[in-house]
Amino acid sequence: MNKFLQRWTVFAGLVVVWQVAGMLAEDPFFPPPSDILTAAWEWWVLEPENVTGHILPSIGRLLSGWAIAAVIGISLGLLLGRSDRAMEYAGPLLVFMRSIPPPALVPVFLLLFRGGTSMQLATIVFGVIWPVLLNTVDGARSVDVTKVDTSAVFRIPRHQWILGVVLPAASPKIFAGLRVSLSLSLVLMVISELVGTDNGIGSQLMVAQREFDYTRMWAGIVLLGVLGYGLNTVLLAVERRALAWQPRSRDEQHA
Amino acid sequence: MSNMLEVADLGHTYGDYEAIGGLTFTVRAGELVCVVGPSGCGKSTLLRTISGLIEPSRGDVSLKGSHLAVVFQDYQRSLFPWLTVQGNVEFPLRSLPRAERRVRAAEALEWVGLGAAAKKRPWQLSGGMQQRVAIARALAYRPALLLMDEPFASVDAQTRFELEDLLLRVRREHDTTVLVVTHDIDESVYLGDRILVLSGSPAKLVADLEVPLPAERDQVTTRTDEAFVALRSKVARLLNVGGKQTLDVEKWAAAERESLSETVSTSS
């Protein structure tokens, strides 16, 4: 409990400072947090159409884009990571593609998919696949020689080698990539919704800004913060379970 | 007695470095043979060619029976930390039905005295216990030949004695054919029915010695037995212990690097 207080004190303090400053300044661009929270509550929680029409589609795109990127990134990464030759051919291409800022491709995808969900998914998938893919390659390459030898001596079948040895050995790095990708997914979800669509949290930010409803705009930003925080917390919990097998430093001394 | 392993004129070169030069020997069924030689004399290359991890440059390795198992020196890296002890022992048995896998793993863990540790993770066990898990995994696989690469070099002396006796017991109880590669002369005499003395490099067979000791061995009495002491001195003389170092360190390091890269590319 003490630690909880310690962790949130700075956060709460800043909110209080903003509240007082906002009430004193009465600036329409910077409404106090109490107004923002009220707006967020009325707009995002009490309006069922907003939940089904904007929040759920946004979360749906974010999660499916991230999941598609994860599946492609992990499978491709495992294969590339275990083949030096494939990496020699594909390496420069991967590094180049990763260097392209994903928002720069929004116009391309707009043309290709004429807006809508497929364009948004393409933006998210293209933007977030790289951390997963490159981390998986890195993890797959790091399987130590004794495990490679052990697997070869016991002549385990190829699928067991990939799924039973390479995948778990790479999983700590894969999870690190998945976490980076998840927060990137949120960014790209918002960016992809700023143009070419009339639903989603991102589009509502633009609508609120155009209608000079700054309190509602801030409410959208708060919602995105909460969403990002929540998703990251869930993924961390999953990661902790999935990687529970990792030796903890205290136990390692025993060996 | 039939031959379990026949090695004929086996040679291996890395580039222009000859690691083993024409080895010929056999291992009979149920026998425990120790290969002893100085560090860097090509013992590891020998083990890797026998186990099929690298293709020898020349010569033949023929094994009676379809599969062999290897116990590596580095048990920490050889065991899979994401599997339980039982999962590790079942690892090479995935092609068998689940129930049979369970039975075999439980049985093999009993043999090495780790029946109670089945649900633990390997890294929760001591070093000696981890190596016992690796031995159980190899035994559960029912190999025609059990290869061991410096199996007890990474544990303390007390544990080492225990593991040596454990190996002698399980191989007697289960009639396992074993080839142990070691640089430790005492260990080779204590464990072996027969000792192959290598000198190198390139590794050449200097002597093939029968061990004139009874099958039942004991850490205290066997090691003071006259026959033990005599054979130990003989092997030491053959290996020229205390003599001039003949190993070319740079060549050896290059060969080692080569052998590592070779493994990675063959098994990926």
UniProtKB/TrEMBL annotation, chain A:
Signal peptide residues are: none
| CDD domains reported in the protein's UniProt record | TM_PBP2 (cd06261)
Recorded hits in Gene3D superfamilies, A to Z, give: MetI-like
Its annotated compartments are: Cell membrane
Residue ranges spanning the membrane: these are 63-81, 93-113, 119-137, 176-197, 217-238
Question: ABC transmembrane type-1 domain: which residues?
Answer: 55-235
InterPro entries linked to this entry:
MetI-like (IPR000515), MetI-like_sf (IPR035906)
Identify the keywords attached in UniProt to this record, alphabetized. Answer: Cell membrane, Membrane, Transmembrane, Transmembrane helix, Transport
Membrane disposition: Multi-pass membrane protein
Per the annotation, which location comes first and is thus the protein's main one? Answer: membrane
Organism superkingdom = Bacteria
Which protein family is it in?
Belongs to the binding-protein-dependent transport system permease family.
Q: What is this protein called?
A: Nitrate ABC transporter permease
Species assigned in the record: Lentzea pudingi
Name the lineage.
Answer: Bacteria, Bacillati, Actinomycetota, Actinomycetes, Pseudonocardiales
UniProtKB/TrEMBL annotation, chain B:
Query: Matching PROSITE patterns, A to Z?
Result: ABC_TRANSPORTER_1, ABC_TRANSPORTER_2
Describe the location of the ABC transporter domain by residue ranges.
5-225
Looking up InterPro entries in the UniProt record yields: AAA+_ATPase, ABC_transporter-like_ATP-bd, ABC_transporter-like_CS, ABC_transporter_ATP-bind, P-loop_NTPase
Q: Which Pfam families match?
A: ABC_tran
Task: Tell me what this protein is called.
Answer: ABC transporter
Instruction: Keywords in alphabetical order, please.
Output: ATP-binding, Nucleotide-binding, Transport
CDD domains for the chain: ABC_NrtD_SsuB_transporters (cd03293)
